[in-house]
Amino acid sequence: GLGTDCAASHDSMDIMSELKVLYLVSKMQGCTMSAQDVLKSVWDGPARWLGAPLGKLEKGYFADLVFFMRDLDCEPCYEPHLHLITTLTSRHIE
Fold first, then answer.
1. Which residue pairs, CB below 8 angstroms and at least 24 apart, start in 81-84?
2. What CA–CA distance (Å, rounded) separates 79 from 85?
């Protein structure tokens, strides 16, 4: 799982910056995780570990939607999963 705990360890408490750090550190460690794998590890993994009906938009699951607004600093976008991790910040979330 991935999260922020308090302003003492990370001034912005920005989950998107934590996601970027996870991806970059995994690459520095020689991990072969793709951007899509990193996203799955923070969205699908915790729900599976908790045994909770989360992480899917299906009947019987708790739904939560996050909208990412694209603006000029988000263009061009060739690999959406990688782009989400490396370019977008919490200011893009609606």
1. 81/34, 81/35, 81/36, 81/39, 82/35, 84/35, 84/39
2. 10
Q: Which amino acid is residue 68, in one-letter code? A: F
- Terminal-residue alpha carbon distance, the chain: 22
C-beta of residue 23 within 8 angstroms of C-beta of residue 12: no
pTM: 0.72
Name the one residue in this structure whose structure tokens are 């690459």. Answer: 27
Dihedral sign (CA 11, 80, 38, 48): positive
What is the distance between the alpha carbons of residues 52 and 39, in angstroms, rounded to a whole number? 18
The model's pLDDT over 20-63, given as tens digits with 9 standing for 90+, comes to: 888 998 888 888 788 888 888 877 778 888 888 887 788 998 87
Looking at this protein, which amino acid is placed at residue 7?
A
